[in-house]
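Hi all, long-time lurker, first post. I run a small reading group and we've been trying to get comfortable going from sequence to structure in the token notation. Rather than ask abstract questions, I figured I'd post a concrete chain and ask someone more experienced to write out its structure so we can walk through it together at our next meeting. Sequence below, copied exactly:
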Amino acid sequence: MSTDEIRKEVSGAKARYLISRGEAVAELTLSIATPQLEIADHTSVPDAWRGEGGGAVLVARLVSDARMQGFKILPLCPFVNAQRRKHPEWADVFQV
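-- Answer (accepted) --
Happy to help. Here is the structure in token form:
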């Protein structure tokens, strides 16, 4: 999986990153607290995709967007928080 497959949808104070394959969807949901802070709420990957790196790709795209757009990420989602700990080079975009 690559970040090219990901799309971001924003609706008011909610957003999500999605990867779709047919009917199956992996997503990372966000709450937009302020223009400078997005809260990573939940990551969901279909069982059939487990171990393929779909969740990690979603988080990497979130980190990339945070750097490009200048916002911080509050990692309430356990998966996003685990990825943050695995990638100390991402410390600049996380608010913990």
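A couple of things your group might point at:
The chain has one domain: 3-85.
The domain at 3-85 is CATH 3.40.630.30 (Aminopeptidase).
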